[in-house]
User: Which sequence fits this backbone?
């Protein structure tokens, strides 16, 4: 069992129930059945499991043969039919073979020979059943007076094939089914079939719950659901009437209309969620797109951890009401509650809703929450509507969460691109701009600043090769970083400083007053800043630099390349003078 299924089963533990009924053939998942049975055992309340054995549970099994024999005897003994065909299920299938044996037994008891050619294996579904029906019609045997089918699906196929071939049901050929599916009720003539006696089953469950109330003890035992023959129009026991046809058409038209309306409403919800990027936003639009019919109640809740405002908070096991309404209107949403209080949190304003359908909100193995729909009475369309709502809401939540994740990824990508762009403009060692960064930010400052002058400062370290050769490149890097720090300090905030090469730096300063931005003043401040840098005084070598300074009044055509060239010329001239002085 997946973690999502385990969480869903866990909701059952918090319901104020006096019994659990497990539909074993519907669930099929052994772990899920055991999980529900274990919940019932922990709470010491009765648990009934249909068609599957589970520890500590009452076992309720279908007796398929009982009703089938009733129907076969009804056709042969009460309608006096002698030529009878049968549509069985799969050859070798346990249930199919059991019904086939019943069919043969009743024939023999009534002196009717078993003709194998009158037996077809329709495999319980449409295509094989149609092939077998066509074989019956092409047979050289006399046309059958009745066709007995092992299930309703094949019986409906038999009726359709007979009608297309020009035969009337039941006037020419009686047709019967087995299991009582809804489609048989809507078909004309309505299908004669066998239906499980669920009334007797309900009374058995009620009796055992009452026993448990008195004694407080659960005493598991077995119960058999017998099938009862339901004699309708396809065997001739009920008259055909247009009123029934009109009612069926009316119900189908109403169901189709409701299906179209609900699909439109669900599409509105999904469409409205396309631009959303958070569950908070979804909670705001849901009441505007989802109409609550007057005849039932609807509630939906999701895990609190899905909300952005819960990031970093301990919300494990907490839920948030996404929507809650009934009687055609919404009540409230946004309330937070512990998952163990999920049933208590449902704000049902009255007791009109006696039946609850709970559906999972999930995407694959990821569970988001659940929906709850309440009814006074319920039909197939109600159940379909609940399935549609939970499916569309699951898809909508998944869409919003994907949008949220994409937005986070987009933000992270933009941040990463910004950092990459920054790295591509910075010198890794000194954290000053590189040549690319210099020109980009120079252009930006020219556009933004209103200062009157632009001052280009070219700086080159003296004797870097001497430091590298005699003290190593680590010391050379220290000297370069010290000079870079000093350059940044003397140029101030309204400047663009860059390392153009190994020990070459260029800066452009924007100012209204350049009296203190002369070559002499900047050179003195640069050396002072170098000397005051931590660790420089302990070095066995001096760190000095030569500079060149060019100032220009700002114009629309400020030629930075020309300024760099002029400043470099001045800087190299000063460098030669310094070298001559050292000699």
Assistant:
């Amino acid at each position: 069992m997946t973690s999502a299924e385990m969480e869903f089963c866990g909701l059952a533990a918090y319901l104020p129930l006096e019994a659990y009924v497990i539909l074993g053939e519907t669930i099929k998942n052994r772990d899920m059945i055991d999980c529900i049975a274990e919940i019932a055992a922990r709470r010491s309340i009765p648990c009934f499991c249909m068609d599957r054995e589970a520890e500590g549970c009452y076992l309720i099994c279908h007796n398929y043969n009982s009703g089938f024999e009733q129907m076969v005897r009804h056709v042969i003994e009460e309608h006096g039919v002698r030529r009878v065909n049968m549509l069985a299920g799969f050859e070798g299938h346990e249930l199919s073979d059991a019904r086939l044996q019943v069919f043969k037994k009743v024939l023999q008891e009534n002196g009717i020979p078993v003709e194998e050619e009158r037996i077809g294996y329709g495999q319980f579904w449409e295509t094989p059943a149609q092939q077998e029906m066509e074989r019956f019609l092409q047979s050289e045997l006399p046309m059958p007076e009745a066709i007995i089918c092992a299930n309703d699906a094949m019986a409906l196929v038999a009726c359709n094939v007979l009608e297309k071939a020009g035969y009337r049901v039941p006037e020419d050929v009686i047709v019967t089914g087995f299991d009582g599916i809804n489609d048989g009720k809507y078909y004309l003539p309505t299908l004669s079939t066998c239906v499980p006696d669920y009334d007797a089953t309900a009374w058995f469950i009620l009796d055992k719950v009452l026993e448990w109330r008195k004694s407080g003890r659960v005493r598991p035992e077995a119960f058999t659901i017998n099938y009862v023959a339901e004699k309708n129009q396809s065997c001739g026991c009920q008259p055909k009437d247009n009123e029934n046809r009109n009612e069926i058409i009316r119900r189908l038209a109403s169901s189709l209309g409701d299906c179209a309306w609900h699909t439109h409403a669900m599409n509105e919800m999904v469409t409205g969620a396309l631009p959303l990027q958070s569950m908070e936003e979804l909670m705001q639009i849901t009441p505007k797109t989802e109409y609550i019919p007057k005849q039932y109640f609807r509630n939906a809740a999701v895990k609190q951890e899905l909300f952005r405002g819960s990031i970093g908070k301990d919300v494990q096991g907490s839920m948030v009401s996404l929507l809650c309404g009934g009687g055609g209107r919404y009540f409230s949403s946004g309330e937070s509650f512990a998952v163990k209080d999920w049933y208590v949190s449902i704000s049902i304003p009255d007791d009109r809703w006696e039946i609850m359908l709970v559906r999972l909100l999930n995407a694959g193995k990821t569970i988001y929450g659940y929906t709850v729909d309440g009814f006074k009475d319920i039909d197939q369309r109600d159940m379909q509507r609940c399935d549609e709502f939970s499916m569309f809401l699951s898809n909508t939540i998944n869409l919003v969460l994907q949008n949220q994740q994409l937005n986070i990824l987009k933000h992270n990508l933009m941040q990463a691109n910004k950092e990459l762009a920054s790295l591509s403009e910075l010198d890794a060692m000194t954290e000053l701009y590189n040549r690319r960064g210099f020109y980009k930010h120079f252009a930006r400052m020219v556009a933004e600043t209103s200062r009157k002058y632009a001052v280009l400062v070219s700086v080159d370290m003296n004797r870097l090769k001497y430091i590298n050769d005699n003290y190593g490149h680590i010391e050379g890097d220290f000297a370069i970083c010290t000079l870079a720090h000093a350059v940044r300090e003397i140029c101030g905030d309204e400047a663009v400083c860059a390392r153009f090469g190994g020990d070459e730096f260029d800066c452009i300063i924007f100012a209204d007053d350049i009296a203190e931005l002369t070559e002499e003043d900047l050179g003195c401040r640069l050396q002072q800043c170098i000397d005051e840098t931590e660790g420089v005084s302990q070095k066995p070598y001096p760190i000095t630099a030569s500079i060149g300074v060019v100032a220009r009044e700002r114009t629309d055509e400020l030629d930075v390349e020309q300024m760099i060239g002029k400043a470099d010329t001045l800087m190299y001239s000063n460098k030669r003078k310094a070298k001559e002085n050292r000699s």
